[in-house]
Amino acid sequence: MKVALIQMRTPADQAAALAQAEPLVRQAAAAGAQFIATPEGSNLLQRDRARMFEVLKDAEDDVCVQGLIGLAAELGVWLLIGSALVRREDGGAANRSMLVDPKGRLVATYDKIHMFDVDLPTGEKARESEAYTPGTEAVVADTPFARLGLTICYDMRFPYLYRALAQAGASVITVPAAFTRPTGEAHWEVLLRARAIETGSFVLAPAQGGRHEDGRGTWGHSIVIGPWGEVIARSDDDEPGVVMANLDLDAAARARQAIPALKNGREFSGPDTAR
């Protein structure tokens, strides 16, 4: 399976986002990628909540989302829109991952479950729950290559989600992200490698990188990790670009056979919090 991760510096406008993403997706397809993944917020990054809701669209009316779906069909590739920030039917917002097949059909969606509500030591604050409605369902999807488990960014800090996806048969787990720079430098690679090792899965993590129009800074360093925890390919910076990798999909089965942690887990009780 030849995969490509698209690293972006998404602006605060859907049309401009598509203009940035399209040549990178075409580059990846021309290099032979069968599966291409873009980062979190591929269509729009705007941390000002009021401004974001002014420009937020339904997925069906979002020029970037529809442009990427059209590209998948034109190029004949599987494309994961790592996430798009879209309007929900109830008027709220969703941070939604969308898997598109080579005919341009939307075959799976996943709404980010874990909201990034933090107060960082640098003084930076984030309250995703004030803007987005969290998802409630873990999602796996079948492709001709492998069963995929879909996650987004902050999800990576919750190992139980990854274990559930692996136990549901996922051998490739996607983690599109827009990681902050301080948390990215400290935690990005080590957390992703841990999730790969714990589940015996490939981890594909396309990232946002650099200083964005809305003022935020993101870490970049998109990375592909194997089921033994090895780094297969990565970007060493935060510049927009393409990271290519060839995956030996049998490696997941070998890792799980060597260390059958998915089978060896046991139910337990406690601890007793009353003490």
If you had to describe this structure to a student in words, what would you say it looks like?
This protein is an alpha/beta fold and 275 residues long. The chain has a single domain (2-263), classed as Carbon-nitrogen hydrolase (Nitrilase/N-carbamoyl-D-aminoacid amidohydrolase, 4-Layer Sandwich). It is 28% helix and 27% strand. The protein has seven helices and 16 strands. It has helices spanning 14-30, 49-55, 63-75, 159-167, 181-199, 250-258, 261-264, and strands at residues 2-7, 35-37, 78-87, 93-100, 106-111, 117-119, 125-127, 139-142, 147-150, 172-174, 202-205, 209-211, 217-219, 223-225, 231-234, 241-246. The strands form four sheets. Strands 5-4-3-2-1-16 form a six-stranded mixed sheet. Strand 3 and strand 4 form a beta hairpin. Helix 1 (14-30) runs parallel beside helix 3. The chain is globular, with a radius of gyration of 18 Å.
